[in-house]
Amino acid sequence: MSHLHRIQWLDEQIRAGNYPSSAQLSERFEILTSGSIDIHYGTREEV
Hints:
mainly alpha, 2 helices, 2 strands, 47 residues
């Protein structure tokens, strides 16, 4: 899933009144919350 798709999904959730937790985002996008290492893309993202 591209970064744009992630942003679009999050935007849709917020507009619908849903506010996903970091744990939900981590599960949805297959990323680790500690260290912010993106498993799917293999890149380190700044926190």
